[in-house]
Amino acid sequence: MASTAFRKIDIDAYDEEVLIESELYDPYPYDPATALSAAKQKQSAVRSSLSKGDTAGALTAVLEDAPYGPDVEEAKMVTLQTLFNILSSTKATDIPPIVKSLSTDAQDSLMKYIYKGMAMPGWGDVSGSVLLTWHEKLTEVAGTGCIVRVMTDRKTV
Amino acid sequence: MSAPEVFSLAQVPLTAHAFNADRQQVAVSLNSNDAQIYTRSGSDWNLTETLSEHDKLITSIDWAPNTNRIVTASQDRNAYVWQQVQDPNTGKLIWKPSLVLLRINRAATYVRWSPLEDKFAVASGARAIAICSFDPENDWWVSKLLKKPIRSTVLSIDWHPNNVLLAAGSADMKARVFSAYIKDVDKRPSPTIWGEKLPFNTICGEYSSPSGGWVHSVAFSPSGDVLAFASHDSAITIVYPAAPAVHQNTITSVRPYEYGPNGNVTKVSTTGVDGKLVVWSVNPVGSVTSKLGGMHLR
Predict the structure, then answer these.
(1) Which of A124-128, B41-45, B126-130 is predicted least confidently?
(2) Which of A4, A107, B267, B272: CA 20 to 30 A from B1?
């Protein structure tokens, strides 16, 4: 039988004009270790903000410079956990003013995490109804444009 | 706002259209290989001419108002310039095509005449923009390709009023500003805020769409000092090329500086930690923001 090994050749490697994933967006500026320690630092900062009842501040802190990209999985999971702590400890009536106080960038970022949470059913202690409530309130404030931006963005959290 | 005028030209999709100078004629492509010219009579449009030369779908049409020339671009990788001449036999005016040597190997997607109408730019799926100018010696249109650093199909272009700079939006999620300076056609352009020395294919700016969407549409402001583009990530980005160099640090306060006749703010002033006081013109932003709902502006 003829050899089929040629089928496994990565022909893109020989194409000078091939477009690779990393060219599509700016890479996350920090290495995995730095990102992880930053995420853990934020986690403790968020705990103290939450104990003071400052949910909006806690949320802004997490969503700012959120880790993205393929190399920082651990930091992403820590951030996700931190964020879910905030989401599930907020009363439904408090959500609209908090969402309104966020910048558009932070709103987009929050939407990314909500979708990520929905894609991981049963992970951690977050419930679907909490995510759906946040999603509803966030869409009311930020509009469907926010969802489109999250769907197109390759800087996944 | 007065009600829009609605004309039903055909029962098929229209892929492109361009009006002539007095807007009494319009060239449209009825999702086909032909471009049709309709002439207005009252509230009707009558088909007066059909331009057939392309053998694939026409993607874009532009009609130069002063020189009265039409350029069509098509998926057959060609562009034609149509010029009105007298038929030697009948004496009637006919549209005569001349082929343009585009040298692209993918569909042409978008075409626009330059402001002086001595050049036109053809965007294409070949990761290139063909800048075409007339070569009187050989009596045909020749092209020079803008290639680097375009990584994907170019979807839209817009000329800067100085006839040299060209903005392009592309499916690699970036909008770029290029120099399309052709030595034998253009006079040396005076410096703009996009740059001073502008040999062909100078990249004067490269801007990513914020959440990584195809850039579907680009446009310069009438002054040419501001660039705006719309992208598939539900965002409009407005670029002030001079802006990053203005404030070197945090902006501490913003105040209205000057009001227009209708009471709108036309200029604002800002101060920064860098010790600078800056007066900005907000016109280009305001005219856009007043029409936006849930859009995202940077």
Answers:
(1) A124-128
(2) B267
8 A C-beta contact, residue B37 and residue B17: no
Residue B106 tokens read as: 């993918």
Q: Is residue B108 one of the residues assigned to a domain? A: yes
> Is the same domain home to B234 and B257?
no
Superfamily name with CATH number, domain A31-152: Actin-related protein 2/3 complex subunit 5 (1.25.40.190)
Q: How confident is the model at residue A113 (pLDDT cuts 50, 70, 90)?
A: very high
**Chain A closest-CA separation from residue B231 CA (Å):** 10
- Specify whether the CB–CB gap between B198 and B139 falls below 8 A: no
Closest CB from B152, B212, B296 relative to A145? B296
Pair B171, B281 in one domain: no
Query: Which residue has 């056609």 as its token pair?
Result: B185
Domains contained in chain B, number:
2
What span, in angstroms and rounded, lies between the C-alpha atoms of B102 and B99?
9
Q: Is residue B109 part of a domain?
A: yes
pLDDT bracket for residue B298 (50, 70, 90)? very low
Taking the CA atoms of residue A130, residue A136, residue A137 and residue A138 in that order, the dihedral angle to the nearest 10 degrees is: 100
Alpha-carbon gap, residue B68 to B96, rounded angstroms: 12
CB atoms within 10 A of CB A105: 16
- Rounded to an integer, what distance in angstroms lies between the CA atom of residue B75 and that of residue B55? 8
The DSSP bridge pattern shows strands B129-135 and B119-124 to be: antiparallel
Q: With beta carbons under 8 A apart, name residues in chain A contacting B230.
A: none
Domain assignment of residue B11, yes or no = no
Interface membership of A110 toward B (CB under 8 Å) = no
